[in-house]
């Protein structure tokens, strides 16, 4: 891989993290360890990142987790994550902890999610190059392939359709507008993972607006890593998934050395 120079402050923080007894590495997937691609189904983790995560997961006191807005099913498929990887899907609504998948929607919430999907599909139908992704706790309008004008009009139509449903949570990401019947956040997902793993410190990395909820629950012993541009509550920043892979490699090297 190409050599990416990492900031000296970040390297120090990574080395500090490498030495904690119990470590949780929790990562967003799309745009963080996998480059963003047009078709969500084609997204794959960078081999260097996947390799570093495998090495980390094999070390004592080290757990790896993926925290994504994707449904758990989609996250499992594209991430090809090892069985011992903890998974948080749909921004915290779905979790897979040590093999067991869990979804916590009530029958009423499922019904609302179905009705919401129908309303959004109708609203999106007249527009080219936009599509509705069905998610366990709601639906998302994707506009990555649309022109700016179509994106704007489609989002307005979707928002109007969603207004008929009271109490929805709206999440805006890069070229995606999501409506959910549950208000879980990635911050709650990370807190849950911290509890389950009993970790002394957490590394969380993410590239999108919804990752900010997770950055905000991090404390002084943790490391928040923002990928790319945009305002952030994270203490550190890198440019791209390649740089995240470098951070993970460094962390794996250091932690392996301390354990040998
Ligand atoms: Mg992302």
TrEMBL record:
Its EC number is 3.1.3.12. This is Trehalose 6-phosphate phosphatase. The gene is otsB. Keywords: Hydrolase, Magnesium, Metal-binding. It comes from Herbiconiux daphne. The keyword Transport does not apply. Removes the phosphate from trehalose 6-phosphate to produce free trehalose. Belongs to the trehalose phosphatase family. GO terms for molecular function: trehalose-phosphatase activity. It holds the Pfam family Trehalose_PPase. Coiled coil: none annotated.
